[in-house]
Amino acid sequence: MNYCVVGLQWGDEGKGKVVDILAENSDIVVRYAGGANAGHTVTVAEERFALHLMPSGAVRPGTACVIGNGVVVDPEVLVGEIEGLARRGITMEGRLFISENAHVVLDYHKQEDRLREEALGKNKIGTTARGIGPCYADKVGRSFAIRMADWRDMDGLHDKLRQVADYKSRIFRALYNAEPVDAEGIFEKCKMYRETLLRCVCNTTRYLHEAIEQGKNVLFEGAQGSLLDLDHGTFPFVTSSNASSLGMGAGCGVPMKLIDSFIGLVKAYSTRVGSGPFPTEQDNEIGHRIREKGHEYGTTTGRPRRCGWFDAVAVAYSARIGGIDEIAMMHLDTLAGMPELKVCRAYRIDGRETTFFPCDAEELSRVECVYETVSGWNEDISSISQWEDLPVETRRYIELIEGLVKTPITILGVGPRRSQAIFRNQV
Ligand code: GDP
Ligand code: IMO
Ligand code: MG
Predict the structure, then answer these.
(1) Number of domains forming the structure of the chain
(2) Fewer CB atoms inside 10 Å of the end CB: C or N, the chain?
(3) Among the three residues 175, 199, 223, which one is the final residue of a domain in this structure?
(4) Distance 322 CA to ligand 1 centre (A)
(5) 407: CA distance to ligand 2 center in Å?
(6) Does pLDDT of 426 surpass 70?
(7) Is 380 a catalytic residue?
């Protein structure tokens, strides 16, 4: 069986946890989009792993990990992750495969990300400053792009870096009065990381197709969330890749029709990091309570996450565009103790009610939420392992959302650990 796990909100839905659970029965885990802007948490017993580029399957020793062509690879972060895992007794030797077509994030991308955000001031996107947008822009622009394959020819890479650095330096100086790009320093770092990374570089499309033909189980791990998708998210407050499941095929060369189930990930409420419209946001005591109980602080940047009620209009949209077969809902335990819960079932815009999500940021910023209010529950549900044992209010809450988003909710998260999940139907 091949599964694809993809966020249906604005990221941080718990993809790391669900991928880790499903990886138990997978031979290969594949990242296909985004870069080190992602922060995926896997918690095994008391041990916590925060992975940025490495597929979450890394935590399971027998699982192969693929970084597909759609990912932008920051070599410094990736080598740091390989070394960090090794220090914890987990080796990636012989089981990490990086696409030769994956583009490389270098220091000048991160510099440009920061400079541009600073210049935008209050209009900034609120990026993770990991150089994601500038690297994807170079990919699309082609002339100054550097791919993993370029590391095979170090003289060629050196020449290219000098040319790119000269071009970028002139732009940075003119626009931001910034320091020139240090081509030689960047080249020295590339030389340092080359030994660890180059032996993993290969044609991952071929590797994946051969594995699928041999009947291997492949698990595709989305990054970010569908509402941050470059084409289908809340533009311009999005990331620079197709973060919905629509990016999967292009991001690794495997067609969507080979996927047995697209599993959409949600939290039992909503969160968002960075700028952009967020209709159900609770910038008040309720949001504060969710943030503290759910430890809603960014895995990559440590920024406090904006919190709000579950938005069924937004999730129904993500499920629809992404061809989602089933939903996994995390953080149900976080809602315990709230006397009542609200679920947004429609938007009111320009006097009319709609259940279709307008992804245009300006239009979305004007919507008014129409809420359904239900009773909460007081019980601590974090050690429950059966659907039948959940409080009736919890089950009603899930069934309400299931009806609104018209997709079955099959996996429930009741805590951060691998073991804290309830399976309603076997996936
Ligand atoms: P990702 O980016 O989608 O992988 O999610 P993050 O790792 O950035 O954020 C999710 C956070 O929620 C992590 O700290 C997880 O350990 C935690 N988490 C995941 N599922 C649950 C759950 O069901 N309950 C609770 N309390 N925490 C969870
Ligand atoms: P995971 O995979 C949450 C957000 C940033 C910002 C916008 C653009 O852990 O769910 P970027 O650095 O990509 O140019 O920033 O996207 N963002 C995320 N938010 N989770 C993520 O990843 C994110 N990756 C990017 O906060 O609003
Ligand atoms: Mg995250």
Answers:
(1) 2
(2) N
(3) 199
(4) 22
(5) 25
(6) no
(7) no
Nearest by Cα to 267 from 12, 1, 4: 12
> With 0-12 CB in 10 A as exposed, 13-18 as middle and 19+ as buried, what is 145?
middle
Domain's final residue, options 177, 199, 221: 199
Q: Are residues 193 and 209 in the same domain?
A: no
Give a yes or no: residue 140 inside a domain.
yes
- String of b and e for 362-381 (b: at least 16 CB within 10 Å)? eebeebebeebeeebbeeeb
pLDDT digits (tens, 9 = 90+) for 342-396: 999 999 998 999 999 999 999 999 999 999 999 999 999 999 999 999 999 999 9
Q: Are 11 and 229 in contact (CB under 8 A)?
A: no
CA separation for the pair 129, 114 (Å, rounded): 6
Q: How far is the CA of 7 from the centre of ligand 3 (A)?
A: 10
Q: Which domain holds residue 182?
A: 103-199
Nearest CA to ligand 2 atom 21: 224
C-beta 273 within 6 A of ligand 2: yes
Rg (CA), the chain: 21
Question: What atom in ligand 2 is closest to the CA of residue 133?
Answer: 14
93 found inside a domain: no
Query: How are beta strands 409-413 and 326-330 bridged, if at all?
Result: parallel
Q: Are 150 and 198 in contact (CB under 8 A)?
A: no
Q: Would you say the CB of residue 128 lies under 6 angstroms from ligand 2?
A: yes
The reply to whether 179 falls in a domain is yes
- At 32, list the tokens: 């296909």
Domain of residue 336, CATH code: 3.90.170.10
Distance, in Å, from the CA atom of 426 to the CA atom of 278, rounded to the nearest integer, reads 33
Tokens representing 394 are 């919890």
Our answer on whether the CB atom of 414 is closer than 6 Å to any ligand 1 atom is yes
